Amino acid sequence: MPEWSEEKRAQQRERSRRWRARHLDKARELGRKWYHENKEQAYATSQRWRSKNKETVLEYNRKWDAAHREERAQAAASRRAVNKEKVAEYNREYRDAHRLQFRVYKAVGRALKSGALKKGACSACGAIEVEAHHEDYSRPLDVTWLCRSHHKRGHSERLSRVGGAGRGT
Ligand SMILES: [Zn+2]
Ligand SMILES: [Zn+2]
Asked: So where are the chain's domains?
């Protein structure tokens, strides 16, 4: 390799370093673009470097862990808090939904007792052993009578149709 070429390449490197310093965003974007177009090469290079510098990598990881211990503890705590809140919300929703279900169930029982509501046969197969099915909890006496198996079937069909957000009992 002739002398001048080495010098020229150094100049070229310096020019491109200066250009990158002046155009940080652009340089970053070009770097990203290069990375996307040469992912495998980039990965192989980085793997080669990592396998040759295992100690450096370990040390780097140790330092990173130490520097971010606090941060990571906070992140974990906040994840736990969010999760706790989610569980509480789920329980609230469950309780509210079933409180309503319980009220509707009671209303049906009272109406049957008073004669305001009469049990019918399963509207699908005519069986006499039936359960009350509600399309809408806000109308507790608007009941469709279904045998246990048709009731179940109706719910699972509706559940799969609307992705789990089925209503009614
Ligand atoms: Zn039936
Ligand atoms: Zn039902």
From this structure: 1-63, 68-169
